Amino acid sequence: MSFPYSTEKQVALTAVRRACALTSSVFNKLVRNETLTKDDKSPVTVGDYSAQAVVNTVLSRAFPADPIVGEEDANELRQKSGEALKHRIVELANEALTADLGIGEMAEWGLGPGQERTPEELMDAIDHGSDPGGPLGRRWTLDPIDGTKGFLRGEQYAVCLALMVDGEVVLGVIGCPNLPVNNAEPDGQKGCIFVAVKGQGAEQTALSGANPTPLTIPAVTPGTLNFLESVEAAHSDLEFNNRVSELLNITRAPKRMDSQAKYCCLARGDGSVYLRMPTRAGYKEKIWDHAPGFVLVRECGGIITDSRGQPLDFGLGRTLGENYGVIAAGKDVHADVLAAVQKAQAEEKEKSKA
Ligand SMILES: Nc1ncnc2c1ncn2[C@@H]1O[C@H](COP(=O)(O)O)[C@@H](O)[C@H]1OP(=O)(O)O
Ligand SMILES: [Mg+2]
Ligand SMILES: [Mg+2]
Ligand SMILES: [Mg+2]
């Protein structure tokens, strides 16, 4: 008997593994003119574009009817960039797609020797991520490089893919090429992939290997609580985290890292609370920045809500809509963090009145 979503899990793992191999090799060869600045001033590299082309190609071959909500689109590439940049993206994507088939990989997913795509097919594959999202039906959401700033610094980033059915996240895969396989050995082997399927639990595997390890968020011993938070001060309100930390009498320093690697670290107990509050009114979190992390945390026994304790709603479109902030933690910790967040918010409100 096969479990629900077993084919989807295999396809998603394959696509994310191939994209991780691509981004790792791109990092070592990245040159200055291979990064563009998007209209929102955030960076995007040949790695982001080619990883989206690879994952979308695999998904649209394996599941032709499924729409994809992907972070990137090829507009700027088609309009602003020169032929050299486009050529590089095509070369990288084709290298990743045509590598020899590994265990569990199928040629009918568009993979293996001889499966090169034309530049136009790959630009179209990138644009296949333009679905607007919504409450009904099946759809994937993809962040080809989450934490592009971490990627550019040679630090943490993640390739993030999730499947949603009727607005509910049922499968999440997060590939972290720079994350140590074992937190206790920071200089040891790096590169891991995390997968969670709704109702079936979660596991971690080394990117290079087999033998998945099941994951559960460990219970927190008093006095050992610590936060997981962004590196970039523009991405989340680190001052606010500091105040919440004081209210909870936390003495351990926060663990700062880019991307959904934070959810992975929470899932295996490298940190105890992921708190992310917006730095400016009006910022709406994107579904691809949280969907795989959401199902991972839930399947590891954790709780994830917004700052008002409301569930995250993935069925509203490309963003989390009215959700404000994100709190993810083990089930023995979440209620205390939520209370402290609300107290810190009340203090801020008082201060702004004074
Ligand atoms: N102004 C912003 N506020 C919040 N998140 C942002 C902002 N600009 C970019 N991001 C996204 O925040 C996430 C990174 O958060 P963190 O700093 O915690 O890793 C990324 O998804 C990043 O996009 P991207 O996927 O392009 O890197
Ligand atoms: Mg980006
Ligand atoms: Mg991204
Ligand atoms: Mg992102």
UniProtKB/TrEMBL annotation:
Protein name: 3'(2'),5'-bisphosphate nucleotidase
PROSITE patterns registered for this protein in UniProt: IMP_1 (PS00629)
Enzyme class of the recorded protein, top EC level: hydrolase
Catalytic activity, as annotated: 3'-phosphoadenylyl sulfate + H2O = adenosine 5'-phosphosulfate + phosphate; adenosine 3',5'-bisphosphate + H2O = AMP + phosphate; adenosine 2',5'-bisphosphate + H2O = AMP + phosphate
GO BP field: sulfate assimilation
Lineage: Eukaryota, Fungi, Dikarya, Basidiomycota, Agaricomycotina
A GO MF label: 3'(2'),5'-bisphosphate nucleotidase activity
Keyword Magnesium belongs to the record: yes
Positions annotated to bind Mg(2+): 71, 143, 145-146, 289
